[in-house]
Amino acid sequence: MRKKLFTGSIIALSLAVAAVVILHPTRATSEEPKSASMQVNVDNFTFGPQTLTVPANSTVTWVNKDDVPHVIASDDGIFKSKALDTDDKYSYTFTKAGTYAYYCSVHPKMVGKIVVQ
Question: What Rg do the C-alpha atoms of the chain give, in angstroms?
Answer without folding.
Answer: 26
